[in-house]
Design brief:
The complex is a heterodimer of chains A (386) and B (267).
Chain A lengths: L1 H6 L4 H21 L11 H27 L6 H20 L12 H5 L15 H25 L4 H20 L11 E2 L3 E2 L2 E2 L3 H27 L1 H11 L1 H6 L4 H27 L1 E2 L6 H14 L5 H18 L7 H15 L3 H12 L14 H9 L1
Antiparallel strand pairs in A: 1-4, 2-3
Helix pairs in contact in A: 2-8, 3-8, 3-11, 3-12, 3-13, 4-6, 4-11, 6-11, 8-9, 8-11, 12-13, 12-14, 12-15, 13-15
Chain B lengths: L1 H21 L4 E10 L2 E11 L4 E5 L6 H8 L7 E6 L3 E2 L5 H7 L1 E4 L11 H8 L6 H5 L5 H13 L15 H14 L4 E5 L7 H14 L4 E5 L3 H7 L2 E6 L2 E6 L1 H6 L1 H8 L2
Parallel strand pairs in B: 3-8, 3-9, 6-7, 7-8
Antiparallel strand pairs in B: 1-2, 1-4, 4-5, 9-10
The chains are: A mainly alpha (386), B alpha/beta (267).
Bound molecules: adenosine-5'-triphosphate and magnesium ion.
Chain lengths: 386, 267
């Protein structure tokens, strides 16, 4: 059943995207391991940078799945990303063992500093990678389930839903800032040493983490593609276009929203978990409402309602950000980002990829059907037809 | 003591009596009232549809025709009154999705199709069958389903446009697509709100023929302002006015009713 479900997703475009991601995921790390004199050598900082972008791209994909296909504009997805990151961070903290400043074999440094004598119960199990791996998807998934259960059942939609997702991530931001929460407060979790016994700073480990990020993005893409290609995906689009109509044909809309929201939160959690070992820290700042909004901007720039769009958008905007913030105009970045969002909304409502796809589609190839007219239509039709 | 006891028993007693009367009907509305911020859209409306019956509902703008459909399909909860389907299913306690699954389909006054889906997918979505999220995730369209979709597309004359996005259809075609979606649901009862609004005379006649054909096997309630269309349907007519039934009978009978002439036809 599952294999048939995945196989249905495999069309030419999907193969291309998967192939590209895997090629980049393998080639770049290999080139980074070459001798610096080698002409195609890739410096380690580039691996770290692009690895981070790949995680952002997976986050963007998860936002697009709920926003672009089901019309749920979540402005709190960074919360799921951060929770996945914290779950990974907790595992990495416990890997430090007795090598911390206070050399306590069990307690992370910040707990010793707070004069705690034993590990809080919710840190149990995080010394095992498999346990952390489960928590990386389970915790964001559970939060999304509880949040979605109440929000979707009481039919909160549109801007009200967006506002409460912001409130959710903001509440978590405040909670994680507190020292007595047991997640390192304001400093968060950092000074990681090993992952699965390998030195986390070693170029080879970084290469593997990079590959894992590319692989996770490819898997996320494949899963989204399979979801969209299924009848479930058609119902999602129906909900986005005419929610109450969908109910009147007998679909219980809240169930669909809940399933897709939980799936999306889990994807965001995986993205966060790969992000943390690559940048070496997770702190409450990751819950900042602005982070969630940025993720939405990536999707809007790339093109919501297409699966390639959010990936392209996340890469483009973040390359732009890195380039911009390394120059002397750094402090103006937020204005640029805001202007970009306004410009895209006004002039490229389908985003970069959406516009390109619509243009390709509009080229007179067949005489039967008129080209799609309304914004995201074209891209969806293109993806379905492909 | 007795008085208190009687009062408590009264509603239960009434529901029981209502159920008794509802027994042989397909749709049974009794004493249904709905108000919006104090404005009474339905006032103690009563209506009975027999299995296999087709009924036309007419009435001036704001008479409460659409609101009545909202009550039946679970969009609006009545302030009071009973709504029973197939004798004993209390519709006032159910949500839209479960009412739809019972076999009540609805076509909206303003045609609502899924604009960014193709014509084919619109029918596919409405097709009777899987409804749960996990069932649809792993569902594969069967040959039987494909054949059924093709069949419906033929009936609504959109077979050659099956790959078109619904957004690109004309107003009349959208109306037909919505009727096709209704058929795909295989309901026992079809509620059709103003199906011929915006159609040419020829399309209107074809729609009347189509609905008469459907009514051979299903119960249909049609709301329409177009009198020649109602005449074409040739069925019992109910006239609504200010939220309750003003008159009921053949089109000729209600047309001759002085109260109807005064509030509706006369103007
Ligand atoms: N959700 C609502 N909130 C407030 N008033 C409403 C609502 N729905 C309907 N009404 C009012 O209830 C009355 C009945 O409306 P309804 O739409 O049922 O009339 P109708 O008979 O279908 O009219 P038409 O022929 O114009 O479609 C109208 O006065 C309308 O303004
Ligand atoms: Mg109406």
């Amino acid at each position: 059943m599952i294999t048939a479900f995945i196989f249905r997703a495999l069309d030419r475009n999907t193969y291309i995207v998967l192939g590209l991601l895997l090629a980049v995921g393998i080639l770049l790390p290999l080139l980074s391991l070459t001798d610096p004199s080698f002409p195609l050598h890739v410096p380690t900082y580039v691996i770290a940078l692009i690895g981070k972008y790949l995680c952002y791209a997976l986050l963007a994909l998860s936002v697009d799945l709920v926003w672009g296909y089901c019309g749920i504009l979540s402005l709190g997805h960074a919360a799921f990303f951060a929770l996945g990151g914290y779950a990974m961070g907790m595992y990495l903290m416990r890997q430090i063992g007795a090598r911390g400043v206070y050399a306590n074999p069990v307690l992370p440094d910040f707990m010793v500093f707070l004069n705690w004598n034993e590990l809080p119960w919710f840190w149990y199990g995080f010394d095992h990678f498999w346990f952390a791996a489960i928590m990386i998807v389970a915790v964001p998934g559970l939060l999304a389930f509880i949040f979605g259960w109440f929000a979707f059942r009481s039919r909160v939609t549109g801007v009200y839903l967006s506002i409460i997702t912001q409130a959710m991530t903001y509440a978590l931001l405040l909670a994680f800032f507190r020292n007595d929460m047991g997640f390192g407060g304001n400093n968060g979790l950092t000074d990681f040493k090993d992952i699965l016994g390998f030195n986390i700073q070693a170029p080879a480990t970084r290469g593997v983490l990079f590959f894992a990020s590319a692989l996770a993005l490819a898997a996320g893409f494949l899963i989204c593609r399979a979801v969209i290609a299924s009848k479930f995906g058609k119902v999602l689009i129906a909900v986005r276009d005419a929610e109450s109509r969908t109910r009147f044909i007998g679909y219980r809309v809240e169930g669909y929203k809940l399933v897709v929201f939980v799936l999306s939160a889990m994807m965001a959690g995986v993205a966060g978990s790969l992000y943390v070992p690559q940048i070496g820290i997770i702190n409450p700042g990751e819950f900042a409402p602005a982070n969630s909004i940025e993720a939405v901007i990536w999707v809007a720039v790339g093109g919501r309602g297409t699966l390639i769009g959010p990936i392209v958008g996340a890469l483009l905007v973040n390359f732009g950000k890195t380039w911009f913030t390394s120059g002397m105009l750094a402090e103006y970045w937020l204005f640029v980002l805001g202007a970009l969002f306004v410009a895209v909304t006004l002039f490229l409502p389908k985003g970069v990829v959406g516009t390109l796809l619509a243009r390709a589609k509009a080229r007179p190839t067949s005489t039967s059907a008129p080209a799609a007219v309304s914004p995201i239509d074209a891209t969806i039709a293109a993806e379905e037809g492909a | 003591m007795t008085a208190i006891h009687d009062q408590a028993a009264a509603p239960a007693e009434r529901v029981r009596a209502s159920r008794e009367k509802a027994k042989n009907s397909l749709l049974y509305l009794d004493g249904v009232s709905v108000s919006f911020d104090g404005f009474k859209a339905l006032r103690s409306l009563s209506l009975v549809i027999e299995p296999g019956e087709m009924r036309a509902i007419i009435g001036p703008n704001g008479a409460g025709k659409t609101t009545m459909m909202d009550v039946i399909t679970g969009k609006t909860k009545p302030d009071e009154g009973d709504v029973f389907f197939a004798g004993d299913t209390d519709l006032t306690r159910m949500d839209e999705a479960s009412i739809a699954s019972l076999g009540i389909g609805r076509k909206f006054q303003k045609p609502t199709v899924f604009e960014s889906h193709t014509v084919w997918n619109n029918i596919d979505l409405a097709l009777a069958g899987v409804r749960g999220p996990f069932a649809t995730l792993f569902h594969r369209t069967s040959l039987r389903e494909t054949a059924r979709i093709e069949e419906i597309l033929d009936v609504i004359r959109l077979a050659d446009k099956k790959e078109w996005l619904a957004a690109n259809l004309s107003h009349g075609q959208k109306q037909w697509l919505e009727i096709g979606m209704l058929l795909a649901q295989e309901p026992q009862l079809l509620l059709v709100d103003e199906p011929v609004a915006g159609m040419t005379d020829a399309e209107t006649r074809e729609t009347a023929a189509l609905l008469r054909e459907i009514a051979k096997t299903k119960s249909v309630v049609v709301v329409e302002h177009d009198m020649s269309f109602v005449r074409d349907l040739d069925v019992k007519v109910t006239v609504l006015h200010q939220g309750s039934v003003l008159s009921e009978g053949t089109l000729d009978a209600v047309s001759a009713d002085p109260t109807v002439i005064e509030v509706y036809l006369g103007r």
